[in-house]
Backbone:
C-alpha cells in the first residue's frame, strides 16, 4: 500500500541503489546487514548521503538519528518510519 | 572580549530572493558586523569591492594610522598579506540569482568584486605599496597563514615591514544553507570545549596587524602590542573535514621550534595562553585538545586554553587574524579573554579551559599560541611573547 506516494519496498531498493552509485559498487554487494564501516562510509559520507536521502523522500533526518545509523538496514528502517510519519493526517483537537 | 561582550546574535528577517517564508536554517544565530557603513570608502573603491574587501580595507587603514608605519618605512619595502578564503560571495550570489531567475545582464564590476585578492590590491593602492602583495586561501586558517607568512618575510629581511591579517564576509543565503546541510553548526551557539558543545557559529569580520622588526618599533616609540616569535605549519594528509591530532601537534611543535630563532629554547614551558581554533564542534575540540597535550607534554594540563570564537563566531578566512589580534591584546594587557557559553568544561579534554570570567596572565609564562586547524587538514600556529618592560 503506497504511503505518501512511496511503495515501502521501493525505499530499500532506492537507498541501496543510491549508496551503490556513490561508492561505485555493484548493487548486489549491498544488503540490509551491510555496515557503513564495511562500505568505508565515514562521517562526511553520511552527511552527504543523508542529504541525498532527504531530497529523495522529502523527509528530514534529525541530527541525533544520524549518529546512530550504522548499517543500510538502519537507514531503510529509519526512512520507512519518517515516510510513514509524514503520511499521517494531522491530529485533530 | 575581555568583558565577555558577544558578537553573536539572532538571525533576523529574510534574505534577498528567498522563495520560502522561512529561511530553512536549523541554526538561529550568527556573528555579523553591525552598523558597518561602506560610505566611509570612496565611490571608486565601492564600485569594485564586496563587503569582505571593504572590511579588510578599513581594518588595514586603522592599523596603518595607529602604527604610523609609513613614517619609518618606504612603501616599496612593505608587504601586504591577506587571508581571504571566500572572496566576494555576496556579489557572486546576487549576480547569479538575477541571471538565473530573469536572465539579467551581469555587471562588469562583478569580476572585481568577487576576486579574493581584491582586499589586498586595494590596501596596496590606497597606501602606495609596491612591495610584495598577495592574498592566500587556506580555508579557516587563512588569516593565521597570512600573518605567519608576513612574519617570515619581515624576519628574513625580504621586506622591512608588513600589513597582514584576514577579512571575510561570507554570510550569504547560499553559504548559510550549505553550512546548514553540513550539520556542524550549533542550533543555539558555539560552546567551545564545553561538555555539551554541539557545533560552531558562523561569523564575519576583519583584523589587520602591522609587523616590523622589534628593535625598530621600540626605537621609534610606537605602541607595540606583542612580539611574534614563531610560526608553524603542517598538513594532516588525512581527511577533508575530520582533523587529526598528529597533524595539529606538528604545527604546534614547529611553532615552538621556530621560536628558537627568537632565542627561546624552552617555548614548551613558557606558554601562558592558548587561543585555540576552538570551533565548538565535537570533533575539533577533542582533536585539538589531544594535539595540545602531544605538543606541550606535561605543561598542557596547566595551560589556560580558550576560544574567542565563542564571542566572535567563526569568521573563516578572517578568524585566524581576529584571533591573533585577541592574542596580542591579551599579551599587552596581561589579561585573558573570556570563553563564553561553556556550561561545564569537558573533563575528557584535561585542559584548563577558560570560562566566562576575567583572569590575569601568569607572568611566569609570557608566551601565547594562536591555533588554526582548517578543513582540508591545513594547520597554522602563531607563537607570541609579551613585552616585558
Residues:
Amino acid at each position: 500500500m503506497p504511503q505518501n506516494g512511496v511503495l515501502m519496498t521501493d525505499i530499500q531498493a532506492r537507498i541501496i541503489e543510491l549508496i551503490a552509485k556513490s561508492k561505485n559498487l555493484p548493487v548486489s554487494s549491498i544488503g540490509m546487514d551491510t555496515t557503513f564501516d564495511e562500505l568505508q562510509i565515514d562521517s562526511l559520507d553520511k552527511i552527504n548521503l543523508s542529504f541525498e536521502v532527504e531530497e529523495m523522500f522529502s523527509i528530514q533526518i534529525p541530527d541525533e538519528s544520524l549518529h546512530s545509523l550504522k548499517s543500510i538496514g538502519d537507514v531503510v528502517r529509519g526512512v520507512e518510519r519518517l515516510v510513514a510519519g509524514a503520511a499521517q493526517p494531522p491530529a485533530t483537537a | 572580549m575581555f568583558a565577555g561582550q558577544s558578537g553573536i546574535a539572532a538571525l533576523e528577517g529574510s534574505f534577498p530572493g528567498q522563495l520560502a517564508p522561512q529561511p530553512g536554517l536549523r541554526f538561529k544565530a550568527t556573528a555579523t558586523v553591525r552598523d558597518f557603513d561602506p560610505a566611509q570608502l570612496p565611490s571608486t573603491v565601492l564600485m569594485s569591492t564586496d563587503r569582505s574587501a571593504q572590511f579588510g580595507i578599513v581594518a588595514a587603514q586603522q592599523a596603518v594610522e595607529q602604527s604610523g608605519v609609513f613614517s619609518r618605512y618606504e612603501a616599496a619595502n612593505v608587504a601586504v598579506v591577506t587571508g581571504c578564503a571566500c572572496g566576494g560571495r555576496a556579489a557572486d550570489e546576487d549576480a547569479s540569482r538575477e541571471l538565473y531567475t530573469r536572465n539579467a545582464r551581469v555587471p562588469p564590476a562583478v569580476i572585481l568584486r568577487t576576486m579574493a585578492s581584491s582586499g589586498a590590491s586595494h590596501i596596496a593602492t590606497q597606501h602606495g605599496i609596491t612591495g610584495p602583495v598577495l592574498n592566500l586561501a587556506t580555508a579557516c586558517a587563512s588569516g593565521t597563514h597570512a600573518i605567519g607568512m608576513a612574519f617570515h618575510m619581515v624576519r628574513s629581511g625580504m621586506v622591512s615591514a608588513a600589513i597582514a591579517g584576514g577579512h571575510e564576509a561570507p554570510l550569504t543565503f547560499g553559504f548559510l544553507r550549505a553550512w546548514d546541510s553540513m550539520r556542524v553548526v550549533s542550533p543555539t551557539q558555539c560552546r567551545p570545549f564545553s561538555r555539551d558543545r554541539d557545533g560552531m557559529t558562523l561569523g564575519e569580520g576583519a583584523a589587520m596587524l602591522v609587523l616590523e622588526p622589534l628593535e625598530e618599533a621600540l626605537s621609534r616609540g610606537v605602541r607595540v602590542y606583542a612580539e611574534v616569535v614563531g610560526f608553524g605549519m603542517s598538513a594532516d594528509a588525512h581527511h577533508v573535514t575530520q582533523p587529526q591530532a598528529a597533524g595539529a601537534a606538528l604545527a604546534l611543535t614547529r611553532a615552538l621550534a621556530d621560536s628558537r630563532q627568537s632565542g627561546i629554547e624552552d617555548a614548551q614551558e613558557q606558554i601562558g595562553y592558548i587561543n585555540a581554533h576552538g570551533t565548538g564542534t565535537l570533533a575539533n575540540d577533542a582533536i585539538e585538545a589531544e594535539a595540545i597535550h602531544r605538543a606541550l607534554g606535561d605543561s598542557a594540563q596547566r595551560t589556560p586554553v580558550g576560544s574567542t570564537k565563542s564571542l566572535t563566531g567563526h569568521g573563516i578566512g578572517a578568524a585566524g587574524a581576529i584571533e591573533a589580534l585577541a592574542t596580542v591584546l591579551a599579551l599587552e594587557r596581561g589579561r585573558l579573554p573570556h570563553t563564553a557559553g561553556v556550561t561545564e568544561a569537558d573533563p575528557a579534554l584535561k585542559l584548563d579551559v577558560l570560562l566566562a570570567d576575567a583572569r590575569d596572565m601568569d607572568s611566569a609564562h609570557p608566551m601565547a599560541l594562536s591555533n588554526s586547524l582548517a578543513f582540508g587538514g591545513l594547520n597554522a600556529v602563531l607563537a607570541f611573547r609579551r613585552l616585558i618592560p
Summary: The interface with chain A takes residues 26, 181-183, 239-242 of chain B (CB under 8 Å). Residues 51-67 of chain B form the longest helix (17 residues).
